[in-house]
Amino acid sequence: MTKRAGDGLFGSDLWEAALEKYGSATHLTVRLFDADERAVFGPVHSTPLFQLFDETGYEPGIFAECAHRCIAQIEKRPAIIVSQFHGLAVVGASLALEGRVVGAAVGGYAFADFSQVSEIQRLARQANIVFERLWEIARKQPPVPQRRLRVHGELLQVLGDALLREHYRMRQYERAAAIVHSSDDAIVSTDLEGVITSWNSGAERLLGYTAREAVGEPVTLFIPADRIDDEQGIVERIRRDEKIEHYETVRRCKDGRLLDVSLTVSPLTDAQGRIVGASRIARDITERKRQEHHRELLMNELNHRVKNTLATVQSLAMQTLRHAATLAEGRDSFEARLMTLSKAHDVLTREHWEGADLNKVAADAVAAYCGDVQESRFRVAGPIVRLQPKAVLALSMALHELATNAMKYGALSNTTGNVEINWRLIPGDPQRFQLRWAESGGPPVETPDRRGFGSRLVEQCLAQDLAGEARLTFARGGLVCTIDTPLDEIRQSEPAERHS
User: Which of these CATH numbers, 1.10.10.10, 2.60.40.1180, 3.90.180.10, 3.30.450.20, describes 184-284?
Assistant: First the structure.
């Protein structure tokens, strides 16, 4: 029975088939040993003499001794003959792979030269075998001259080295094939005419075509029309054996989708080193591209916000200080407006700068004026409206200016006044949004002789930011501010609209 061990270099059917033919031609039984001198394969082609020793349990030890002497060779690797009892012999040779001795192959048993009957008798006694039984086999096995036995050993070495190389190549190929098969990347090979010759499961998952659909088709099967000229240039460079750096491009899936990929192209060669085709490895970088695009949008958005914020702060500073009666008054007004702007930014930051509810914006804008006594003096009502960031900032500043004015001159300057803040959605095409600030119960209102920065901020800046209209009505019973604008100018868009 053929013995196999776990050493991957010797554990294939390739060895058994080749060594069986060798043993049959040379009338030798072959055993293989690894670099640690362990018997890892064999016996192959058990001769009658080997079978007899195996049945009787006789082990002269010359297989192992020969393997030891072969493996001990480092530079020169001649065939080695080990004999015992002036006749019984084995021949072996070291086996090497990539310049390193990895084991030995030993063939036996042979009767070297011409054995005498007396030597056979001594061997029978040593092996505890009946002489007649041993002699019956020995006389049918022609003796082999040592010169021919050495040739057998050299042939065994050539065969063993070749089998090692082939087996190693097959293992490397199987490993590479397993990697290709299990890879999530699309790995496709073509000939020099651009015809697909292999198509892995990664290509099936990524591009949608099965191997049966793709193999035999031109590589343009999954290349967009506007990239075909690039592909022709790649093929020409492969023919000239030019190095092609990996690059990013687009490929077309079976369902028509365009896919961002990182592509690596390498030449394929035959056994003689001639270029016969190309290997293409395509990696899906759609997610990376999406993240890069998102990061670019964020950076642009951040840059835009910073510029807008700085421009707003600069405008607030200039207008506030220009219209302040004293430096102290200007400083206090400027700080209050900055705090309002800061709170509006806080609201948007908590909402990831996607927008905010108008209820929250209104509450935060007048929070500073809602102490224990004042709280019941504000009445806020209206449907749920999600504001886009620009509208959040604009309305926060406007409500702050109105509340500040009410505190100084209007309904909040005494103990009896009230403020109503309500809004509604008006049907139509386009649908409109209307917000009304109405004061009552405060001192009688008179139309001012001149408009300050606060009034201009509400009537002009707010109207411009919201693409609508803002009106201040100085009614005798209390100030009224009406803001009217198309709803789409202030309402936060749906997620699908934002990311389209």
Answer: 3.30.450.20
